[in-house]
Amino acid sequence: MNAPADFSDTTALMAAMGVEARATAAALAGKSADARTRALKLMAEAIRAAAPDILNANQTDMAAATGLSPAMRDRLMLDAGRVEGIANAVADIAAIPDPMGAVIADWRQPNGLHFQRVRVPIGVIGVVYESRPNVTADAGALCLRSGNAAILRGGSESLNSSRALHAAMVSALKAAGFPQTAIQLVPTTDRAAVGAMLTGLSGAIDLMIPRGGKSLVARVQAEARVPVLSHLEGLNTTYVHAAADPAKARAIVLNAKLRRTGVCGSTETVLIDSSITHTLGRDIVADLLAAGCAIRGDEAARALDPRVTAATEEDWRTEYLDAIVSLKAVSGPDDAIAHIARHGTQHTDAIVTESAAVAEYFLRAVDSAIVLWNASTQFADGGEFGFGAEIGIATGKLHARGPVGAAELTTYKTLVRGTGQIRP
Amino acid sequence: MNAPADFSDTTALMAAMGVEARATAAALAGKSADARTRALKLMAEAIRAAAPDILNANQTDMAAATGLSPAMRDRLMLDAGRVEGIANAVADIAAIPDPMGAVIADWRQPNGLHFQRVRVPIGVIGVVYESRPNVTADAGALCLRSGNAAILRGGSESLNSSRALHAAMVSALKAAGFPQTAIQLVPTTDRAAVGAMLTGLSGAIDLMIPRGGKSLVARVQAEARVPVLSHLEGLNTTYVHAAADPAKARAIVLNAKLRRTGVCGSTETVLIDSSITHTLGRDIVADLLAAGCAIRGDEAARALDPRVTAATEEDWRTEYLDAIVSLKAVSGPDDAIAHIARHGTQHTDAIVTESAAVAEYFLRAVDSAIVLWNASTQFADGGEFGFGAEIGIATGKLHARGPVGAAELTTYKTLVRGTGQIRP
Questions:
Q1: B226 CA to chain A: closest CA distance, Å?
Q2: What pLDDT digit, counting tens, does each position of A7-58 carry?
Q3: Which of B367, B379, B411 sits opposite A397 (nearest CB)?
Q4: Closest-CA residue in chain A for B369?
Q5: Which of A120, A160, B127, B313 is the most buried (most CB within 10 A)?
Q6: In chain A, where are the structural domains located?
């Protein structure tokens, strides 16, 4: 549909997809916000309508995926509810505000020139992901909402599922009068396709987004010749200050660590002021243990309960993504801030305190993408930020930092309106 | 002063500079806007006071630079007026608004969480440049204004001049109570130092900015393992629409092409609606020829004056940076837009017309960093935008597009203030 018939030559295939994407990006720039919304609504309907085909394709993938771990099989597996969830996510993306054309700055110079910075699409976005087929729909829809052409490369084990989803999406693009190449899916499992995308396909790809585990992100960062927005580790800390409200602190720590342990916004380290380890600290340790969380602690933490095991140096830099927490006493805010600066990954960190002055000091001093006061680190999520949908949480500092929604998938241009001005 | 004594091991030297820069970046984050302003004012004074040393060092560089072209010798050469200009540029940077801490977005969610995006420094910025010694002061000062630590690597032929400038800057940092390592200058001419910077010095460098010719930018883009903001070609077009005001069009084309031919904002191609080539087009050709500009044109342009030579395909994609222009007739706005999309470099393009509808169509359709209506492309400059100073004009689409001033050298973090919220 969007690739030459001879899939055996991956280099030629990818080059052709790049040329298509670049041409399509120019065509997409002329579409209106309403047209994009309509295409996204049709896409949600098309996915619902194609559920039998998608489930069929998924059974083929599942049958072939005998070597995968139960966790990976679960990520790959679709059922009627999950397909409905995928369609709903696309419908949600249809409902979020269209970022295009928004004026993000507006000023005049003394010579009368009128300057406006307006949002425009980036152009062509390449997304490389692993076994979850839903990313095909999420990433494609978010790129469309932001006016970009997309080249998607999913995991080889989910290729049949992704192709069925993609076919439904393409039928909606066609029905909405959009180029069918607005969202292209790499039709080969040859890993050379990823390498080709990382070179930028001769300037066709403006931005690469890896969505997956550390090894995928590491490969993308090592090989990419184009800008990358990556989502790295969230070694997040919740710091309980001496002036914390005990009830808030207990609720926040439990939620931050245990609501879902496998998400990037989960807390991995709890720091507690040494003046309150024997009071509030003892309650927090008891709460965590009662909820089934293992605790690796320093001397002060171990003194509170014999079930707390000794933390090693390694524990302070481990993202458990599990019901395990590292916990230690600190002498105060500066000690907590220094611990976070040394061991954290600048993703999401929180303080619990009733002291506004201490909280503001912490918010200013901690250089992480998201810094919270009296709230759970599990709020690190584009949906919770009000973005409607996200393609990940960027942990780099350039272009976007934190949740990446439709607005973060745009760039800007500066329009300058004059009345004949020439430069002296 | 900021490097180990043994300069023979470039790898060790650069690694040590990276460690210093990273530590310094954390210390700089605690400084106030007023402190930065004071340090910049002291820096301007220190450069003025050190003028004799700087001129002395420059004479050593000039004496050694016998193999350079006259143009390169001119770039390298300093005199009292140029040193004063360098000091004034630093004083100008002291006077621009400090970007740090500015709230760039502020919103609340229904659960009561209060979100703020605030500007923060990027961290450590590496700048690689060529023979102009003034970049040492410009880039260092702009990094300081934006709260970043800088590692500067100038051209080997200007090393003595840059060291003398840098010594003055460091004395000012010291006097202002700033770490002397806030602005480090690579003290070796070993090209391996650039390679080391491009790897990011084990995570110490957050952003690389090349300032120089195509070969330098190409090397940086090919080798960089860290984000790069680069300044590429400006193959800019001025399009004279049928509804252009003749006087404005003639003044704008002359200024856009000839005010300064060597700057990235100069116009390289003029497109004229075919319905007016024999009227306004003839005047524009006469103006350009009278001003000493060579014209390479299509059939329509050659019919206007025998001095117009035939343009080759190559001319439409050549950035002359000289008193040469390519000129052709187009059938209307869509033809002009297509020519720009095909041959332009998405830097700066302009339309001259009295039709607001056509102008707005052009502004929307042309995907360049800067798009102007009834104004000269030579306004493509951070100073003209009101930024006070610029470190270049970014031609990529990620992070910053167009002039890069102090605000563009920042990133943001999101502060989330709650009252005990946990995520359901």
A1: 9
A2: 569 999 999 999 999 999 988 988 999 999 999 999 999 999 999 999 999 9
A3: B411
A4: A413
A5: B127
A6: 10-229+404-415, 236-383
Does A259 contact B371 at a Cβ distance shorter than 8 Å? no
Q: Which residues of B touch A107 (CB under 8 A)?
A: 386
Q: Average pLDDT for residues A377-389, to the nearest whole number?
A: 91
**Cβ-Cβ contacts under 8 Å, B372 against chain A:** 415-418
Burial B47-80 (b: 16+ CB within 10 A, else e): bbebbeebbebbeebbeebeebeeebbebbbbee
Question: By mean pLDDT, which of A410-419, B101-110, B213-222 is the weakest?
Answer: B213-222
Residue pair B397/A353 in contact by the 8 Å Cβ criterion: no
Tell me how close the Cα of A134 comes to any Cα of chain B, in angstroms.
Answer: 23
Question: Which of A247, A398, A413 is the closest to B367 by Cβ?
Answer: A413
- DSSP letter string over A2-21? -S-S-TT-HHHHHHHHHHHH
Pinpoint the alpha helices (H) of B10-65. 10-28, 33-49, 51-64
Facing residue for A386 by CB, picked from B107, B372, B419: B107
Q: How far is CA B242 from CA A138, A141, B239, B249, in A?
A: 45, 41, 10, 11
Residues of B in contact with A222 (CB under 8 A): 225
| Cα–Cα distance measured from residue A18 to residue B177, given in angstroms and rounded to the nearest whole number | 52
pLDDT tens digits, A210-253: 988 888 888 888 888 889 998 878 999 999 999 999 999 999 99
Domain A10-229+404-415 shares a fold with domain A236-383? no
Question: At the top level of CATH, which class does the domain A10-229+404-415 belong to?
Answer: alpha beta
Q: Which CATH class is domain B236-384?
A: alpha beta
Output the pTM of the full model: 0.91
